[in-house]
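Researcher: I'm preparing a figure for a lab meeting and need a structural model of a single chain. I don't have an experimental structure, so a prediction will have to do for now. The sequence is pasted below. Please return the structure as tokens so I can convert it later.
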Amino acid sequence: MSDEVTALTQLEPTTATDELTRWLGAVASGMADILASMGLEVSGPSGGPAPIPDHPGSHISLETTTESFLVGLAAPEESLWRVACAFMGLPDDEPFDRTMHIDATCELANILAGNLRDMLLPDEPGVLVGLPTYVGGALHPTGTILRGALPLTVMGVELYVVAQRYALPPARLEFLRMTAELRNREARLQAILNAAVDGVLTIDDQGRVESCNPAGQALFGLEQVVGVDFRTLVPTWAPGPNPSRSGDLHNQDPSNDRVAIRRGNSFPIELTSTAFTRNDRTMYAVFARDLTERRRAEAQLRHAQKLEAIGQLAAGIAHEINTPLQFVGDNTRFVQQASDELLKLARTLAPVANGAPVDAGDLKHILQKVDVEFLAEEVPRALDETLDGITRVADIVSAMKAFARSDGNQRTAVDINVVVETSVKVCRNEWKDVAELELELTPDLPMLDGYRSQLHQVILNLVVNAAHAIHDARRGAGPGRIVVRTRFVDEAVEIQVEDNGSGIPEAARSRVFDPFFTTKDVGRGTGQGLSIVWSAVVDAHHGHVRFDTASGVGTTFFVRLPLAAGAPL
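Model: Understood. Here is the structure written out token by token.
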């Protein structure tokens, strides 16, 4: 409230002041201009503010956030009726009709209220305007700051334009403040919901959608989602204390995705929901996210990670292939040379079969060059080594193909022993120079339902980590030892990867599964290996992974996988 208005509160209610004169004059002049524009004869306003007469009339209220205003007309009833007839275009001798009289008088008060809002309150946001009320006498509200009346002559009849201004009581001020705050909060919340990229819905206890933001409408491909049974959009959803599954926000297993319907087609969706109570009814706030692109990106990322792992091992794999190829080539050249010598001997002895004599000199010369006993012993050995080398190359290539093959983001029956053997072959160059690797695989393990490519990645990362730990611990002190075991425990398959390397430092043990965390030197580790292990075992297969370690002694990782998808451990 301005200091000037505060000062006016100290004045007598009927005291003529410049402020009151200006304020009442503006309202009355506006009324006069409007009536004159309608062809009515108007004079005034004249003089200064006068006491509000105790005459019948009509008033209307306007309210801002701090003050309230009352404007209207007051005059003897017969005078009001004559002005009303002129306002409605009726003759002066029109019989009195109280209903028409009240309607016309109230409409004149409406004109005054509009003029007050336009001329004196143009910058006040959210002015509340009441309904015009016909009263039998002037109102005298409490807490008045300014009140008065100005005479205005219309069609020869004297009326009074009545105006009152008073401060709002504290309770009303607090109510308006709280109302404005609620409106602001609602506006902010609506702006957030409109900008959200996820669908945000409220659902009643019958499963029907009560509200939905624009992203939710786009998510389900509908122009109107409100009123729709949510179970027709997400068939697996059901009202309950907590209809969302535990872990939905971190679910990495596509086979556990909820399925939603959009234009007759299904797509994977992520849902989280929270129950709340309104008017003694249980409601649900549901957040929905389309997983189509995320699942596609995850599948591409997993495949890229496998190819990246093979790329990082490419030099070692090339070396693993090159070693058997070298002795295959050497043995092949030896067999070729031996074949030439044996063919010469055969050609020399060929005439004997037909009874022809053999030149003894030529035969002696050839036999001196061909060590038949040596060739009889070495050629078979060379051929055996050649076949062994070809088998080794074929095994490496087969292991690489199996490791790199995409499983199409689908669960399949997996023989974990085959996965272990394949992964160990692929990364052989990482461990062969630093450790002796032993496989203790339990035969006839049951098949498990899982993602073969992700399990390849798990074994490879654990074995490579073990090799690096042994390299850091021994530093040329002789080969270490890596043992990979499989066994069947409590209706689950368990994989153990044990090494006698450096162990995990105590300060790092709580962070080993964090993405991008590594204790290795720059260039040897990205910090992704064990993070991928955790994601594949825990998120995708709902299994467990843990480790036992001792600094300077070694580490054993334990990976336990349920046989069936989502089976509890």
